Amino acid sequence: MTAPARSRLAAGAALFCAFSAVFLAWRDLTVPEVGDVEVWLGFELHGAAARVTAPLHWAIFAGGAWAFWTERRFVWSAAAAYAFYVALSHLIWSELSPRGRGWPVGLAQAAALSVPGVLLLRARRALAARAGAP
Question: What is the pLDDT of residue 129?
Answer without folding.
Answer: 80
